[in-house]
Protein backbone atom coordinates (compact mmCIF):
# COMPACT_ATOMS: atom_id res chain seq x y z
CA UNK A 1 0.00 0.00 0.00
CA UNK A 2 1.24 3.39 -0.90
CA UNK A 3 1.65 6.15 1.61
CA UNK A 4 -1.63 7.32 2.89
CA UNK A 5 -2.57 10.94 2.82
CA UNK A 6 -5.09 12.63 5.02
CA UNK A 7 -4.53 16.33 4.58
CA UNK A 8 -2.81 18.81 2.25
CA UNK A 9 0.81 19.50 3.13
CA UNK A 10 1.35 22.07 0.40
CA UNK A 11 2.26 25.53 1.52
CA UNK A 12 -0.05 27.42 -0.79
CA UNK A 13 0.95 30.81 0.56
CA UNK A 14 4.60 30.19 -0.27
CA UNK A 15 3.66 28.95 -3.72
CA UNK A 16 1.38 31.89 -4.43
CA UNK A 17 4.15 34.24 -3.36
CA UNK A 18 6.47 32.80 -5.95
CA UNK A 19 4.06 32.68 -8.84
CA UNK A 20 4.43 35.62 -11.22
CA UNK A 21 1.45 37.95 -11.38
CA UNK A 22 0.51 36.96 -14.93
CA UNK A 23 0.19 33.28 -13.95
CA UNK A 24 -1.95 33.76 -10.88
CA UNK A 25 -5.06 32.66 -12.80
CA UNK A 26 -3.45 29.30 -13.59
CA UNK A 27 -2.52 28.90 -9.98
CA UNK A 28 -6.07 29.66 -8.90
CA UNK A 29 -7.45 27.02 -11.30
CA UNK A 30 -4.91 24.53 -10.03
CA UNK A 31 -5.77 25.34 -6.43
CA UNK A 32 -9.48 24.80 -7.12
CA UNK A 33 -8.73 21.39 -8.62
CA UNK A 34 -6.54 20.49 -5.71
CA UNK A 35 -9.18 21.63 -3.24
CA UNK A 36 -11.74 19.47 -5.02
CA UNK A 37 -9.51 16.45 -4.62
CA UNK A 38 -9.03 17.23 -0.97
CA UNK A 39 -12.77 17.59 -0.50
CA UNK A 40 -13.28 14.24 -2.20
CA UNK A 41 -10.78 12.68 0.16
CA UNK A 42 -12.38 14.23 3.20
CA UNK A 43 -15.87 13.17 2.10
CA UNK A 44 -15.18 9.63 3.34
CA UNK A 45 -13.46 8.40 6.49
CA UNK A 46 -10.02 6.87 6.09
CA UNK A 47 -11.36 3.44 7.12
CA UNK A 48 -15.03 2.35 6.91
CA UNK A 49 -16.78 2.08 10.28
CA UNK A 50 -16.95 -1.32 11.96
CA UNK A 51 -20.07 -3.41 11.40
CA UNK A 52 -21.62 -4.62 14.65
CA UNK A 53 -21.97 -8.25 13.65
CA UNK A 54 -23.44 -9.41 16.97
CA UNK A 55 -26.50 -7.21 16.52
CA UNK A 56 -27.10 -8.53 13.06
CA UNK A 57 -26.60 -12.11 14.22
CA UNK A 58 -29.47 -11.58 16.62
CA UNK A 59 -31.60 -9.62 14.20
CA UNK A 60 -31.27 -11.70 11.05
CA UNK A 61 -33.18 -14.98 11.29
CA UNK A 62 -31.50 -16.86 8.42
CA UNK A 63 -28.95 -19.09 10.09
CA UNK A 64 -25.33 -18.79 8.96
CA UNK A 65 -25.93 -15.92 6.61
CA UNK A 66 -24.39 -13.24 8.83
CA UNK A 67 -21.46 -15.51 9.56
CA UNK A 68 -20.75 -16.02 5.87
CA UNK A 69 -21.18 -12.29 5.32
CA UNK A 70 -18.73 -11.54 8.09
CA UNK A 71 -16.22 -14.08 6.85
CA UNK A 72 -16.38 -12.80 3.30
CA UNK A 73 -16.37 -9.14 4.35
CA UNK A 74 -13.34 -9.59 6.48
CA UNK A 75 -11.59 -11.63 3.82
CA UNK A 76 -12.13 -8.99 1.14
CA UNK A 77 -9.36 -6.43 1.03
CA UNK A 78 -9.84 -3.28 -1.01
CA UNK A 79 -6.75 -2.91 -3.20
CA UNK A 80 -5.16 0.53 -3.05
CA UNK A 81 -5.36 1.90 -6.60
CA UNK A 82 -2.16 1.64 -8.61
CA UNK A 83 -0.18 4.83 -8.98
CA UNK A 84 0.65 5.45 -12.63
CA UNK A 85 0.87 9.23 -12.55
CA UNK A 86 3.57 9.95 -9.97
CA UNK A 87 6.23 8.62 -12.33
CA UNK A 88 4.99 11.01 -15.01
CA UNK A 89 5.13 13.88 -12.53
CA UNK A 90 8.65 12.82 -11.59
CA UNK A 91 9.75 12.83 -15.21
CA UNK A 92 8.10 16.20 -15.63
CA UNK A 93 9.99 17.42 -12.58
CA UNK A 94 13.24 16.18 -14.12
CA UNK A 95 12.52 18.13 -17.28
CA UNK A 96 11.47 21.19 -15.31
CA UNK A 97 14.55 20.88 -13.14
CA UNK A 98 16.80 20.81 -16.19
CA UNK A 99 14.98 23.83 -17.58
CA UNK A 100 15.31 25.63 -14.26
CA UNK A 101 19.00 24.81 -14.04
CA UNK A 102 19.58 26.04 -17.58
CA UNK A 103 17.58 29.18 -16.87
CA UNK A 104 19.45 29.88 -13.66
CA UNK A 105 22.78 29.33 -15.35
CA UNK A 106 21.83 31.71 -18.14
CA UNK A 107 20.45 34.18 -15.66
CA UNK A 108 23.62 34.03 -13.60
CA UNK A 109 25.66 34.66 -16.72
CA UNK A 110 23.46 37.66 -17.45
CA UNK A 111 23.84 38.87 -13.88
CA UNK A 112 27.60 38.50 -14.13
CA UNK A 113 27.70 40.49 -17.34
CA UNK A 114 25.51 43.18 -15.85
CA UNK A 115 27.69 43.19 -12.73
CA UNK A 116 30.66 43.71 -14.99
CA UNK A 117 28.88 46.62 -16.63
CA UNK A 118 28.11 48.05 -13.21
CA UNK A 119 31.73 47.73 -12.17
CA UNK A 120 32.87 49.35 -15.39
CA UNK A 121 30.40 52.19 -14.91
CA UNK A 122 31.48 52.62 -11.33
CA UNK A 123 35.13 52.64 -12.36
CA UNK A 124 34.61 55.56 -14.71
CA UNK A 125 36.06 58.85 -13.65
CA UNK A 126 33.57 61.47 -12.52
CA UNK A 127 32.61 63.36 -15.65
CA UNK A 128 33.83 66.69 -14.31
CA UNK A 129 37.32 65.26 -14.00
CA UNK A 130 37.55 63.71 -17.43
CA UNK A 131 39.80 64.93 -20.14
CA UNK A 132 38.76 64.42 -23.73
CA UNK A 133 40.95 61.30 -23.81
CA UNK A 134 39.29 59.90 -20.72
CA UNK A 135 35.95 60.56 -22.34
CA UNK A 136 37.10 58.69 -25.43
CA UNK A 137 38.13 55.76 -23.26
CA UNK A 138 34.77 55.79 -21.51
CA UNK A 139 32.60 56.30 -24.59
CA UNK A 140 34.49 55.40 -27.78
CA UNK A 141 31.22 55.53 -29.72
CA UNK A 142 30.34 59.07 -28.66
CA UNK A 143 33.70 60.76 -28.47
CA UNK A 144 35.34 62.68 -31.27
CA UNK A 145 37.68 60.29 -33.04
CA UNK A 146 39.57 62.00 -35.85
CA UNK A 147 41.67 58.92 -36.57
CA UNK A 148 39.14 56.15 -36.98
CA UNK A 149 36.22 58.24 -38.14
CA UNK A 150 37.37 61.67 -39.18
CA UNK A 151 34.66 64.29 -39.58
CA UNK A 152 34.48 67.77 -40.99
CA UNK A 153 34.15 70.78 -38.79
CA UNK A 154 31.88 71.45 -36.86
CA UNK A 155 31.64 67.67 -36.41
CA UNK A 156 27.85 67.54 -36.34
CA UNK A 157 26.10 64.87 -38.39
CA UNK A 158 24.33 67.47 -40.53
CA UNK A 159 27.59 68.83 -41.86
CA UNK A 160 29.04 65.54 -43.07
CA UNK A 161 29.30 64.53 -46.70
CA UNK A 162 27.24 61.36 -46.39
CA UNK A 163 24.46 63.03 -44.45
CA UNK A 164 20.97 62.42 -45.83
CA UNK A 165 18.21 64.74 -44.77
CA UNK A 166 15.45 62.55 -43.31
CA UNK A 167 12.78 64.97 -44.52
CA UNK A 168 14.03 64.88 -48.08
CA UNK A 169 14.39 61.15 -47.87
CA UNK A 170 10.80 60.58 -46.79
CA UNK A 171 9.33 63.02 -49.31
CA UNK A 172 9.38 60.74 -52.40
CA UNK A 173 7.71 57.90 -50.52
CA UNK A 174 4.88 60.14 -49.33
CA UNK A 175 4.47 61.51 -52.85
CA UNK A 176 4.27 57.95 -54.16
CA UNK A 177 1.67 57.11 -51.54
CA UNK A 178 -0.40 60.11 -52.62
CA UNK A 179 -0.59 58.92 -56.25
CA UNK B 1 95.91 61.51 -45.44
CA UNK B 2 94.54 63.06 -42.32
CA UNK B 3 92.32 65.29 -44.47
CA UNK B 4 90.95 62.27 -46.22
CA UNK B 5 90.31 60.57 -42.86
CA UNK B 6 88.50 63.64 -41.65
CA UNK B 7 86.32 63.85 -44.73
CA UNK B 8 85.51 60.15 -44.42
CA UNK B 9 84.56 60.37 -40.76
CA UNK B 10 82.51 63.49 -41.39
CA UNK B 11 80.71 61.65 -44.18
CA UNK B 12 79.83 58.89 -41.77
CA UNK B 13 78.54 61.41 -39.28
CA UNK B 14 76.49 63.19 -41.92
CA UNK B 15 75.03 59.88 -43.07
CA UNK B 16 74.09 58.99 -39.54
CA UNK B 17 72.59 62.39 -38.95
CA UNK B 18 70.61 62.18 -42.18
CA UNK B 19 69.18 58.80 -41.30
CA UNK B 20 68.13 60.15 -37.88
CA UNK B 21 66.68 63.26 -39.46
CA UNK B 22 64.76 61.32 -42.09
CA UNK B 23 63.33 59.08 -39.42
CA UNK B 24 62.35 62.10 -37.42
CA UNK B 25 60.78 63.76 -40.43
CA UNK B 26 58.88 60.61 -41.30
CA UNK B 27 57.62 60.48 -37.78
CA UNK B 28 56.50 64.09 -37.91
CA UNK B 29 54.95 64.13 -41.34
CA UNK B 30 53.51 60.64 -41.62
CA UNK B 31 50.09 61.63 -40.30
CA UNK B 32 49.89 64.38 -42.90
CA UNK B 33 51.20 62.34 -45.80
CA UNK B 34 49.04 59.32 -45.08
CA UNK B 35 45.69 60.36 -43.59
CA UNK B 36 44.37 56.89 -42.73
CA UNK B 37 47.49 55.66 -41.08
CA UNK B 38 47.83 52.94 -38.56
CA UNK B 39 49.22 53.90 -35.21
CA UNK B 40 51.59 50.99 -35.24
CA UNK B 41 53.67 52.79 -37.85
CA UNK B 42 54.02 55.84 -35.67
CA UNK B 43 57.44 55.85 -34.11
CA UNK B 44 56.24 57.04 -30.79
CA UNK B 45 57.34 55.57 -27.50
CA UNK B 46 54.82 53.17 -26.07
CA UNK B 47 54.01 55.10 -22.95
CA UNK B 48 52.69 58.08 -24.90
CA UNK B 49 49.89 56.11 -26.55
CA UNK B 50 49.45 53.76 -23.63
CA UNK B 51 46.32 53.71 -21.59
CA UNK B 52 46.14 55.89 -18.59
CA UNK B 53 45.38 54.40 -15.21
CA UNK B 54 41.90 55.88 -15.45
CA UNK B 55 41.15 54.14 -18.73
CA UNK B 56 38.50 51.50 -18.00
CA UNK B 57 39.82 48.08 -18.89
CA UNK B 58 36.46 46.79 -20.10
CA UNK B 59 36.13 49.30 -22.91
CA UNK B 60 37.74 48.69 -26.28
CA UNK B 61 41.28 49.90 -26.37
CA UNK B 62 41.79 53.22 -28.02
CA UNK B 63 45.56 53.08 -28.46
CA UNK B 64 47.12 50.54 -30.80
CA UNK B 65 50.14 50.12 -28.56
CA UNK B 66 48.08 48.95 -25.63
CA UNK B 67 48.86 45.38 -26.62
CA UNK B 68 52.48 45.87 -25.64
CA UNK B 69 51.61 46.02 -21.99
CA UNK B 70 51.17 49.74 -21.89
CA UNK B 71 48.72 49.60 -19.03
CA UNK B 72 50.90 47.48 -16.82
CA UNK B 73 53.90 49.76 -17.08
CA UNK B 74 51.92 52.85 -16.07
CA UNK B 75 52.11 53.67 -12.41
CA UNK B 76 48.83 54.39 -10.73
CA UNK B 77 48.59 58.11 -10.35
CA UNK B 78 45.88 59.33 -8.08
CA UNK B 79 45.25 62.96 -8.66
CA UNK B 80 42.44 65.16 -9.80
CA UNK B 81 42.30 67.73 -12.47
CA UNK B 82 42.77 71.21 -11.02
CA UNK B 83 39.52 73.07 -11.37
CA UNK B 84 41.14 76.43 -10.82
CA UNK B 85 44.58 77.78 -11.58
CA UNK B 86 47.27 78.05 -8.93
CA UNK B 87 47.31 81.21 -6.82
CA UNK B 88 49.19 84.17 -8.21
CA UNK B 89 50.16 87.68 -7.23
CA UNK B 90 49.22 90.87 -9.12
CA UNK B 91 46.74 88.78 -11.00
CA UNK B 92 49.29 87.07 -13.21
CA UNK B 93 52.60 86.17 -11.49
CA UNK B 94 52.51 82.64 -10.05
CA UNK B 95 52.92 82.35 -6.31
CA UNK B 96 55.42 79.54 -6.88
CA UNK B 97 57.95 81.95 -8.32
CA UNK B 98 57.85 83.98 -5.14
CA UNK B 99 58.22 80.81 -3.11
CA UNK B 100 61.24 79.90 -5.22
CA UNK B 101 62.91 83.17 -4.29
CA UNK B 102 61.77 83.18 -0.69
CA UNK B 103 64.29 80.68 0.67
CA UNK B 104 67.18 82.29 -1.18
CA UNK B 105 66.53 86.01 -1.06
CA UNK B 106 63.79 86.60 1.48
CA UNK B 107 60.54 88.39 0.88
CA UNK B 108 61.78 91.36 -1.13
CA UNK B 109 64.07 89.29 -3.39
CA UNK B 110 61.60 88.50 -6.15
CA UNK B 111 60.39 92.10 -6.30
CA UNK B 112 63.95 93.42 -6.52
CA UNK B 113 64.70 90.77 -9.15
CA UNK B 114 61.64 91.77 -11.11
CA UNK B 115 62.48 95.44 -10.99
CA UNK B 116 66.08 94.84 -11.96
CA UNK B 117 65.13 92.44 -14.70
CA UNK B 118 62.61 94.85 -16.21
CA UNK B 119 65.12 97.64 -15.84
CA UNK B 120 67.68 95.54 -17.68
CA UNK B 121 65.25 94.66 -20.46
CA UNK B 122 64.21 98.26 -20.92
CA UNK B 123 67.63 99.85 -20.58
CA UNK B 124 69.21 97.42 -23.02
CA UNK B 125 66.24 97.93 -25.34
CA UNK B 126 65.58 94.23 -25.36
CA UNK B 127 62.03 95.23 -24.60
CA UNK B 128 61.30 98.30 -26.67
CA UNK B 129 58.68 100.71 -25.44
CA UNK B 130 57.10 101.32 -28.82
CA UNK B 131 53.46 102.15 -29.56
CA UNK B 132 52.28 98.60 -28.88
CA UNK B 133 53.54 98.96 -25.31
CA UNK B 134 51.39 102.03 -24.73
CA UNK B 135 48.29 100.50 -26.26
CA UNK B 136 49.13 97.47 -24.08
CA UNK B 137 48.84 99.69 -21.03
CA UNK B 138 45.31 100.69 -22.00
CA UNK B 139 44.48 97.03 -22.71
CA UNK B 140 45.67 96.16 -19.24
CA UNK B 141 43.37 98.78 -17.73
CA UNK B 142 40.39 97.58 -19.76
CA UNK B 143 41.10 93.93 -19.02
CA UNK B 144 41.46 94.74 -15.33
CA UNK B 145 38.02 96.32 -15.21
CA UNK B 146 36.48 93.54 -17.25
CA UNK B 147 37.97 90.90 -14.98
CA UNK B 148 36.84 92.71 -11.87
CA UNK B 149 33.36 93.80 -12.93
CA UNK B 150 32.09 91.32 -15.47
CA UNK B 151 34.16 88.20 -15.01
CA UNK B 152 32.31 86.81 -11.97
CA UNK B 153 28.98 86.92 -13.82
CA UNK B 154 30.39 85.39 -16.98
CA UNK B 155 32.24 82.78 -14.98
CA UNK B 156 29.12 81.89 -12.99
CA UNK B 157 26.94 81.50 -16.06
CA UNK B 158 29.57 79.37 -17.81
CA UNK B 159 30.06 77.29 -14.70
CA UNK B 160 26.33 76.77 -14.55
CA UNK B 161 26.27 75.44 -18.08
CA UNK B 162 29.19 73.14 -17.38
CA UNK B 163 27.57 71.92 -14.19
CA UNK B 164 24.30 71.28 -16.01
CA UNK B 165 26.05 69.23 -18.66
CA UNK B 166 28.00 67.26 -16.08
CA UNK B 167 24.87 66.69 -14.07
CA UNK B 168 23.22 65.32 -17.21
CA UNK B 169 26.08 62.92 -17.83
CA UNK B 170 26.14 61.84 -14.19
CA UNK B 171 22.39 61.34 -14.30
CA UNK B 172 22.85 59.17 -17.38
CA UNK B 173 25.38 57.13 -15.49
CA UNK B 174 23.12 56.84 -12.44
CA UNK B 175 20.17 55.82 -14.64
CA UNK B 176 22.27 53.20 -16.32
CA UNK B 177 23.36 51.86 -12.94
CA UNK B 178 19.77 51.77 -11.83
CA UNK B 179 18.74 49.88 -14.95
CA UNK B 180 21.49 47.34 -14.42
CA UNK B 181 20.65 46.96 -10.75
CA UNK B 182 16.92 46.50 -11.37
CA UNK B 183 17.73 44.00 -14.09
CA UNK B 184 19.90 42.03 -11.70
CA UNK B 185 17.22 42.22 -9.04
CA UNK B 186 14.57 41.05 -11.49
CA UNK B 187 16.79 38.22 -12.66
CA UNK B 188 17.33 37.07 -9.09
CA UNK B 189 13.61 37.31 -8.46
CA UNK B 190 12.92 35.25 -11.56
CA UNK B 191 15.37 32.62 -10.34
CA UNK B 192 13.63 32.53 -6.99
CA UNK B 193 10.28 32.16 -8.73
CA UNK B 194 11.61 29.42 -10.99
CA UNK B 195 12.73 27.47 -7.96
CA UNK B 196 9.17 27.72 -6.68
CA UNK B 197 8.22 25.11 -9.29
CA UNK B 198 9.47 22.52 -6.80
CA UNK B 199 6.51 23.34 -4.59
CA UNK B 200 4.22 23.08 -7.58
CA UNK B 201 5.53 19.63 -8.41
CA UNK B 202 5.08 18.61 -4.79
CA UNK B 203 1.51 19.82 -5.03
CA UNK B 204 1.01 17.80 -8.21
CA UNK B 205 2.33 14.67 -6.52
CA UNK B 206 0.07 15.34 -3.62
CA UNK B 207 -2.87 15.73 -5.95
CA UNK B 208 -2.16 12.32 -7.44
CA UNK B 209 -1.88 10.80 -3.96
CA UNK B 210 -5.08 12.52 -2.91
CA UNK B 211 -7.00 11.18 -5.88
CA UNK B 212 -5.76 7.67 -5.17
CA UNK B 213 -6.70 8.02 -1.55
CA UNK B 214 -10.11 9.35 -2.49
CA UNK B 215 -10.74 6.40 -4.79
CA UNK B 216 -9.59 3.97 -2.12
CA UNK B 217 -11.82 5.51 0.48
CA UNK B 218 -14.77 5.52 -1.88
CA UNK B 219 -14.30 1.86 -2.69
CA UNK B 220 -13.99 0.89 0.96
CA UNK B 221 -17.08 2.86 1.81
CA UNK B 222 -18.96 1.30 -1.08
CA UNK B 223 -18.13 -2.18 0.15
CA UNK B 224 -19.14 -1.23 3.64
CA UNK B 225 -22.40 0.27 2.46
CA UNK B 226 -23.22 -2.70 0.25
CA UNK B 227 -22.70 -5.26 3.01
CA UNK B 228 -24.39 -3.12 5.60
CA UNK B 229 -27.26 -2.44 3.24
CA UNK B 230 -27.84 -6.13 2.65
CA UNK B 231 -27.77 -6.85 6.35
CA UNK B 232 -30.09 -3.96 7.04
CA UNK B 233 -32.38 -5.27 4.35
CA UNK B 234 -32.66 -8.57 6.11
CA UNK B 235 -33.24 -6.90 9.43
CA UNK B 236 -35.90 -4.65 8.00
CA UNK B 237 -37.45 -7.49 6.09
CA UNK B 238 -37.79 -9.48 9.28
CA UNK B 239 -39.28 -6.57 11.13
CA UNK B 240 -41.78 -5.95 8.35
CA UNK B 241 -42.69 -9.63 8.24
CA UNK B 242 -43.27 -9.65 11.97
CA UNK B 243 -45.41 -6.57 11.70
CA UNK B 244 -47.49 -8.09 8.92
CA UNK B 245 -47.88 -11.37 10.79
CA UNK B 246 -49.09 -9.49 13.80
CA UNK B 247 -51.55 -7.51 11.70
CA UNK B 248 -52.93 -10.59 10.07
CA UNK B 249 -53.21 -12.42 13.35
CA UNK B 250 -55.20 -9.55 14.88
CA UNK B 251 -57.41 -9.36 11.82
CA UNK B 252 -58.06 -13.13 11.92
CA UNK B 253 -58.83 -13.12 15.62
CA UNK B 254 -61.19 -10.20 15.25
CA UNK B 255 -62.89 -11.84 12.31
CA UNK B 256 -63.41 -15.05 14.24
CA UNK B 257 -64.69 -13.17 17.25
CA UNK B 258 -67.14 -11.23 15.08
CA UNK B 259 -68.24 -14.46 13.48
CA UNK B 260 -68.95 -16.08 16.86
CA UNK B 261 -71.21 -13.20 17.98
CA UNK B 262 -74.90 -14.16 17.18
CA UNK B 263 -78.10 -11.99 17.36
CA UNK B 264 -79.17 -13.71 20.59
CA UNK B 265 -75.86 -13.09 22.23
CA UNK B 266 -76.06 -9.49 21.11
CA UNK B 267 -79.56 -8.99 22.68
CA UNK B 268 -78.41 -10.68 25.89
CA UNK B 269 -75.40 -8.45 26.07
CA UNK B 270 -77.58 -5.37 25.50
CA UNK B 271 -80.01 -6.35 28.25
CA UNK B 272 -77.18 -7.10 30.59
CA UNK B 273 -75.72 -3.66 29.82
CA UNK B 274 -79.06 -1.92 30.55
CA UNK B 275 -79.35 -3.87 33.79
CA UNK B 276 -75.89 -2.84 34.78
CA UNK B 277 -76.71 0.78 34.05
CA UNK B 278 -79.87 0.63 36.16
CA UNK B 279 -77.93 -0.95 38.99
CA UNK B 280 -75.34 1.72 38.75
CA UNK B 281 -78.04 4.44 38.76
CA UNK B 282 -79.73 2.99 41.87
CA UNK B 283 -76.38 2.88 43.64
CA UNK B 284 -75.82 6.53 42.92
CA UNK B 285 -79.24 7.36 44.46
UniProtKB/TrEMBL annotation, chain A:
<feature type="compositionally biased region" description="Polar residues">
    <location>
        <begin position="169"/>
        <end position="179"/>
    </location>
</feature>
<comment type="similarity">
    <text>Belongs to the ATPase d subunit family.</text>
</comment>
<comment type="function">
    <text>Mitochondrial membrane ATP synthase (F(1)F(0) ATP synthase or Complex V) produces ATP from ADP in the presence of a proton gradient across the membrane which is generated by electron transport complexes of the respiratory chain. F-type ATPases consist of two structural domains, F(1) - containing the extramembraneous catalytic core, and F(0) - containing the membrane proton channel, linked together by a central stalk and a peripheral stalk. During catalysis, ATP synthesis in the catalytic domain of F(1) is coupled via a rotary mechanism of the central stalk subunits to proton translocation.</text>
</comment>
<dbReference type="GO" id="GO:0005743">
    <property type="term" value="C:mitochondrial inner membrane"/>
</dbReference>
<keyword id="KW-0375">Hydrogen ion transport</keyword>
<keyword id="KW-0496">Mitochondrion</keyword>
<keyword id="KW-0472">Membrane</keyword>
<feature type="region of interest" description="Disordered">
    <location>
        <begin position="155"/>
        <end position="179"/>
    </location>
</feature>
<dbReference type="GO" id="GO:0045259">
    <property type="term" value="C:proton-transporting ATP synthase complex"/>
</dbReference>
<keyword id="KW-0406">Ion transport</keyword>
<dbReference type="Pfam" id="PF05873">
    <property type="entry name" value="Mt_ATP-synt_D"/>
</dbReference>
<protein>
    <recommendedName>
        <fullName>ATP synthase subunit d, mitochondrial</fullName>
    </recommendedName>
</protein>
<keyword id="KW-0138">CF(0)</keyword>
<dbReference type="GO" id="GO:0015078">
    <property type="term" value="F:proton transmembrane transporter activity"/>
</dbReference>
<dbReference type="GO" id="GO:0015986">
    <property type="term" value="P:proton motive force-driven ATP synthesis"/>
</dbReference>
<dbReference type="InterPro" id="IPR036228">
    <property type="entry name" value="ATP_synth_F0_dsu_sf_mt"/>
</dbReference>
<dbReference type="InterPro" id="IPR008689">
    <property type="entry name" value="ATP_synth_F0_dsu_mt"/>
</dbReference>
<keyword id="KW-0999">Mitochondrion inner membrane</keyword>
<keyword id="KW-0813">Transport</keyword>
Automatic annotation (TrEMBL), chain B:
<keyword id="KW-0496">Mitochondrion</keyword>
<comment type="subunit">
    <text>F-type ATPases have 2 components, CF(1) - the catalytic core - and CF(0) - the membrane proton channel. CF(1) and CF(0) have multiple subunits.</text>
</comment>
<comment type="similarity">
    <text>Belongs to the eukaryotic ATPase B chain family.</text>
</comment>
<keyword id="KW-0813">Transport</keyword>
<keyword id="KW-0999">Mitochondrion inner membrane</keyword>
<dbReference type="GO" id="GO:0046933">
    <property type="term" value="F:proton-transporting ATP synthase activity, rotational mechanism"/>
</dbReference>
<keyword id="KW-0406">Ion transport</keyword>
<dbReference type="GO" id="GO:0005743">
    <property type="term" value="C:mitochondrial inner membrane"/>
</dbReference>
<dbReference type="InterPro" id="IPR013837">
    <property type="entry name" value="ATP_synth_F0_suB"/>
</dbReference>
<keyword id="KW-0375">Hydrogen ion transport</keyword>
<keyword id="KW-0472">Membrane</keyword>
<comment type="function">
    <text>Subunit b, of the mitochondrial membrane ATP synthase complex (F(1)F(0) ATP synthase or Complex V) that produces ATP from ADP in the presence of a proton gradient across the membrane which is generated by electron transport complexes of the respiratory chain. ATP synthase complex consist of a soluble F(1) head domain - the catalytic core - and a membrane F(1) domain - the membrane proton channel. These two domains are linked by a central stalk rotating inside the F(1) region and a stationary peripheral stalk.</text>
</comment>
<dbReference type="GO" id="GO:0045259">
    <property type="term" value="C:proton-transporting ATP synthase complex"/>
</dbReference>
<dbReference type="InterPro" id="IPR008688">
    <property type="entry name" value="ATP_synth_Bsub_B/MI25"/>
</dbReference>
<protein>
    <recommendedName>
        <fullName>ATP synthase subunit b</fullName>
    </recommendedName>
</protein>
<keyword id="KW-0138">CF(0)</keyword>
<dbReference type="Pfam" id="PF05405">
    <property type="entry name" value="Mt_ATP-synt_B"/>
</dbReference>
Amino acid sequence: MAKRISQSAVNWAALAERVPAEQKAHLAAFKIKSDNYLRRVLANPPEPPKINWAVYKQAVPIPGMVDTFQKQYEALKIPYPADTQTALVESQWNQVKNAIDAFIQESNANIASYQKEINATKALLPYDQMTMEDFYDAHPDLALDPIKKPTFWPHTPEEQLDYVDPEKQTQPTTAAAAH
Amino acid sequence: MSKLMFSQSSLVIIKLLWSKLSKFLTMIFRPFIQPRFNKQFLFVPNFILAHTSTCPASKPKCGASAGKGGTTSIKKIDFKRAEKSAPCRFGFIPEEWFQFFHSKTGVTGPYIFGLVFVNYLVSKEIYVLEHEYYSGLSYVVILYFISKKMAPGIGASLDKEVDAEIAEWEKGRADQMKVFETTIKDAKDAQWRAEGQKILIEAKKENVAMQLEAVYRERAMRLYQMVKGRLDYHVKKRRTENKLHQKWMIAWILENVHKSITADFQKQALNQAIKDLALAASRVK
